[in-house]
Amino acid sequence: MAARSVWAVRRLVQRLLASSAASEGRGWPHPFSTATQRTAGEACSSEDPPDELGPSLAERALKLKAVKLEKEVQDLTMRYQRAVADGENIRRRTQRCVEDAKIFGIQSFCKDLVEVADILEKTTEYISEETEPGDQKLTLEKIFRGLSLLEAKLKSVFAKHGLEKMTPIGDKYDPHEHELICHVPAGVGVQPGTVALVRQDGYKLHGRTIRLARVEVAVESQRRL
What we know:
Family: Belongs to the GrpE family.
Helix content: 55-70%
Distance between the termini: 146 Å
GO molecular function, one term: protein-folding chaperone binding
Main location: mitochondrion
Radius of gyration: 56 Å
Mean pLDDT: 78
Organism: Neovison vison (American mink)
Number of helices: 5
Subcellular location: Mitochondrion matrix
């Protein structure tokens, strides 16, 4: 059995040697020859780049990316700083406008009131200069004309600026518009719970009550306080 195995191995070796000789005769390189190995090594070396080029290309790409990102960061930083500066300027302008509105919001009203003061001053000067001593009737007439002119001007100024005097006589008592002074007995034509008398006028500015009218309210006789 062992002799037969040895004989089979010898036959296999002879066949391999014969095949190798035939290949060399036809000019084919032996698969295990040095030339074949060298050719294969050269082919591999010609196709595959050296290992040193890989890291250098990657490093160069990272540097380019870092430069690009740095430029983007600088651009965003400049935009942010510019936006912050613009916002601060807007805030300052808005604050200045608000302060000016608080200070000069009644500028137009004050300008009209100056005209009322001019009328009052001229009336006083006119009375003091042209009135003869002892002529009280003429003095009272001039005072009346001056006060009438002054009242008309004041009403014009109030109407121009939305200031309205309330006339609540006969209206139902409203605590949001009237300040109750006292109760009075309801008389003829006066309904209980309504304003019977105004002690001090109330005013509204553009529909909003800025001063309550001080009033007396009518009630039934038995409910009088």
